[in-house]
Hints:
By secondary structure, this protein is of the alpha/beta class. 44% of the residues lie in helices and 21% in strands. It has an eight-stranded mixed beta sheet with strand order 3-2-1-4-7-6-8-5, with helices on both faces. The termini are far apart.
Amino acid sequence: MISVIIATRNSETELVHALSALVPAAAEGVIREVIVVDGGSSDNTEKVADAAGCVWIGRGNASRSERLAYGASMASRGDWLLFLRPETLLESGWHHEAQAFIERAARASNGPRTAASFRLRYEAFGLSARVSESFAALRSQLLGMPYGNQGLLISRQFYQKLGGHRPLPELEDLDIAKRIGRGRMVFLRAAAVSSGEPEREGLFSRFRQAFARFCVGTLRIPASVAVKLHG
């Protein structure tokens, strides 16, 4: 039913946890394959993927968007594609809700042209993480613009019709969400738990990146233009 595509680069530790969350879904037949497309890791990412039975594809220094697009082109066993980041751990039981969404989409007339994402949570403790989660929920519901660490579940047919991920150095998550459109994006109750810290960079850098994403999500500026501001 679902082909999972994960773009990695030196993601050894994160990938272990991300793949562990997929085991129940694979055991129940919801996940048919997991494709890991790597951008030149120098750690044990490949060994982790191999031990888990993933399809491993090396793509040198290709950007994340290029790796995601290539992984989608190599997926062959699922009618639906689930794009994940290695630092994203899906909440227990997520596959039941995803399966219900897919079954509902199969019955609805516009179902095949609908995509879904998960609610964002951070592993970090403290007020900063909770505020970031609240802003993510507000952005998701108002603009239909999930970030890449929230995952993206989309039918192969719809993904191909949209033209897939465009070759961008950054903001590929908002670019494809913009093309999907708010009215065709569903947000599931299950959470995507990100191991990344919401505030790992300097204040100016965070402001610049947030403003670039605001331009794409709210002002509808093309991601190819805003990516220069994002840095």
